[in-house]
Amino acid sequence: MHARLFRSLYRIRRVEEEVARVYATDKIKSPVHLSIGQEAVSVGVCDALRADDVVFGTYRGHALYLAKGGDMNAMVAELYGKVTGCTRGKGGSMHLIDTECGVMGTSAVVGTTIANAAGYAYSLKLRRSDAVVVCFFGDGATEEGVFAETLNFAVLKRLPLLFVCENNGYAIHTSQAKRQGLPDICARARAYGMPAERLDGNDVLTLRDKAESAIAKLRAGEGPQFIEATTYRWREHVGPGADYHLGYREKSECAPWEENDAVRVLAEQIPTEQRAVIEAAVEREITTAFEFAETSPFPHPSELMTDIFTEDANDFAACQS
Ligand SMILES: Cc1ncc(C[n+]2csc(CCOP(=O)(O)OP(=O)(O)O)c2C)c(N)n1
Ligand SMILES: [Mg+2]
């Protein structure tokens, strides 16, 4: 299990480092919200899921997409805006999707997928499936009305839904303390009637264990569960670089998170030779994915009106008139 988790963590860290490196060339046509520093939350939780379980996430979704089994070629091609991307080059980094492996969607609009996840969980319940849904969102999303409404509905209907709040302490440049009257997000979740636990978002092994027991409760019909994972965004809110020069936070705030880096901590637990094999394979996969993106074509202009709200160009024209 350690090797599997390390591979997943290393793979996400390294592909995002490559995204950051390539970004300056302008070949990547999409804004990127990097998860560097936050990878362990997606990796720990997704490792406890079955292939037929599904996840919903946010625009900071590279880690989730890859941790749930999303195809790396299709992800990098999507960032390049290529037709071989996971949404045929139309969604970009913020709208990753791979329904084959249960990545049902990520969204640029804060909070939206919380309600989408509840809808999916309700449909699973009505179909008497024992699959479950996990919904990932940020601390900022808990200030949206849809968060409150969805928690209430999920408890009322005893939905098989695990809420995972990735609390990195900031919404863009504003700290949680400046935004929330009650920063204890677990207390708010409990107030709606579900169990909630705050975990160290760098501790991938504990996250995996706790997710596994929460998911077992979902399958047993015990209703929604809530995990708040404390974590830290190492890079700027959007884009490849650092943003400590902006003055809204100090670099020293990141230091304990870097010292306790989940990728490095787990790497130290893997025998050196095994680790080298894993790292080499991941590096090859990343090289292949960027080559695939570089050599793939852009979508043909004839695709402009396909895979959007309407397939019918006449309907679209009617909407414009
Ligand atoms: C409905 C909505 N309101 C505002 C925004 C602008 N916005 C983009 S990201 C963001 C911060 C969200 O913070 P959080 O949920 O903590 O996620 P993080 O970026 O920290 O991962 C905001 C306010 C948006 N995209 N959608
Ligand atoms: Mg945040």
TrEMBL record:
Its cofactor is thiamine diphosphate. It comes from the Bacteria. GO terms for molecular function: pyruvate dehydrogenase (acetyl-transferring) activity. InterPro entries: DH_E1, PDH_E1_Alpha_Subunit, THDP-binding. Residues 9-301 form the Dehydrogenase E1 component domain. Keywords: Oxidoreductase, Thiamine pyrophosphate. GO terms for biological process: pyruvate decarboxylation to acetyl-CoA. Pfam families: E1_dh. This is Dehydrogenase E1 component domain-containing protein.
